[in-house]
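User: Some background: our group keeps a shared notebook of sequences we're curious about, and every so often someone picks one and asks for a predicted structure to add to the entry. Today it's my turn. The entry only has the sequence so far, pasted here. Could you supply the structure so I can complete it?
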Amino acid sequence: MIAVLSASGKDFGFDVSPLGEDNNWIDMLRRGGEVGAAHLLWETDHRNPLSPWWYIAARPIILNFEAGLFWLRYFIALALALSAYSMVVTVAGYQARWFAVTLGILIIFWMANRYTEQIIWNFQGALCASLLSV
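Assistant: Of course. Here's the predicted structure to add to the notebook entry:
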């Protein structure tokens, strides 16, 4: 349905333009290149020193596709759902498989929330790494 509405020229679809903080990251990636983007962030914000490296790793996707950050967010949602499923099955055993599947489905649906900026994808990627390390 979304693909049909998007093809009809309506304001529906997966072609989401960057908003707010997303534009700041795109600007830092363009001006700073691969390593300079990290320095540009650290000059203005000291909250998370690891965030730039996620953005630098995904730089080709972010800069070459207008909806690159949007697709990264949904790819990370899939990775987070699979990571949560794997963690629950590993920790609780195979008998918790239905709980793990339900949790994965909830994570996928939760990603389609009202939050319009895509800046949370890297934090969720870090959460994936944490869940997989368990």
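Suggested note for the entry: DSSP finds seven helices and no strands in the chain. The helical segments are 2-7, 21-44, 51-57, 59-64, 68-92, 97-110, 121-133.
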